[in-house]
Write a structure and sequence with these properties.
Layout lengths: L1 E7 L3 E8 L2 E9 L4 H9 L6 E5 L3 H8 L6 H12 L5 E5 L4 E6 L5 E7 L7 H11 L3 H9 L12 H13 L4 H23 L5 E4 L6 H11 L3 E2 L7 H10 L5
Parallel strand pairs: 1-4, 5-8, 8-9
Antiparallel strand pairs: 1-2, 2-3, 5-6, 6-7
């Protein structure tokens, strides 16, 4: 039986098809102004026996297609545990929210916190600041790793941080040093959330921001332990939903 998980996020939609424990297909696309049309387009590119939805847009997907849904917390917990059997802590930084999840040895959720009221430190925040500094988002983390200086960023509000970065550029501060300061500010905000939940290894870092090499490097340096990153960190929630879909009739 082929089961599908679809994770409808604020910035991207992820769809994963699994057969057994194996991922047979996966897709990632922008959410755009019409997420239902994007969902339809993704589903038309594959075939499956059952689908389970997660993400912030799961409720309107459920209402339109009359399919079951699951919370992002449960989906990410299952996906991370399936990918990394020793996972005890999950950090997910997505387009507009950050999640920290603690698991017991069996993969049961013991605690979680979610910052979804402010986009500070998320993918959208990084995208806005990277553009202000004149970087492509894909290069932002790499450039931050080249920094020699350590500039403190005082504001994590996207608008105020953008203004602060503009002021630093006007004072001829190096772009890579400002970039590192931004990444340090994100790290400090993320650690505050993570430490309230768990820092027990194995720590799995998921979500689009997990592709940023500077955030990963700073996490490893600060936590002093290995941080596991899936090959495709954006699809962990969709993968977890697809795995749970296999058990709906059991």
């Amino acid at each position: 039986m082929k089961t599908t998980g679809i994770d409808i996020g604020s910035r991207t939609i992820k769809l994963v098809v699994v057969e057994g424990n194996e991922i047979v297909k996966s897709f990632v696309t922008d959410t755009t102004h019409d997420p239902l049309e994007q969902c339809k387009r993704l589903m038309e590119q594959t075939s499956f026996d059952r689908i389970l939805a997660t993400g912030y847009g799961r409720h309107f997907f459920e209402a339109y297609y009359d399919v079951p849904t699951i919370t992002e917390i449960k989906a990410f917990a299952r996906g991370a545990k399936a990918l990394f059997p020793n996972c005890r802590t999950i950090l997910d930084i997505g387009g507009q929210d950050t999640k920290a999840i603690a698991l017991d040895e069996k993969g049961n959720i013991t605690k979680f916190e979610m910052n979804d009221r402010c986009a500070a430190g998320t993918g959208m925040f990084l995208e806005v600041i990277a553009k202000t500094l004149g970087y492509d988002l894909e290069d932002f983390g790499k450039e931050a790793l080249r920094a020699n200086g350590n500039i403190q960023i005082n504001s994590m509000c996207t608008v105020f941080a953008q203004s602060e970065v503009t002021s630093l550029l006007a004072r001829r501060q190096k772009r890579e040093d400002i970039a590192r300061g931004i990444h340090m500010a994100i790290l400090n905000r993320t650690l505050s959330l993570l430490k309230r939940v768990s820092t027990l290894p194995d720590i799995v870092f998921a979500g689009g921001v997990a592709r940023n090499p500077c955030i990963k490097s700073l996490l490893v340096e600060t936590l002093r332990c290995e941080v596991k990153i899936p090959e495709h960190p954006q699809i962990v929630g969709a993968y977890g939903a697809a795995m749970i879909a296999q058990e709906l009739d059991r």
